[in-house]
Design goal:
69 residues
Amino acid sequence: MQTHLNSTNATKTQLVNLINLLEKVPDPRVRATVEHDLADILAIALCAILCGGDSFYDMEPFGEVRLDW
């Protein structure tokens, strides 16, 4: 059980590190038209593709299903 807790904490730390890195990506979009943070979009895109998504169209349902996450 201890190993599971350690791997969960490591995963949370890694996720926080990933988000911190993605927040450093310059956002070229016009600020007035932005609805979502670029880091959030990039994180959803990356996770959707890693989980088997094939295209942009798989990213929206992936993000909606994991909205609480």
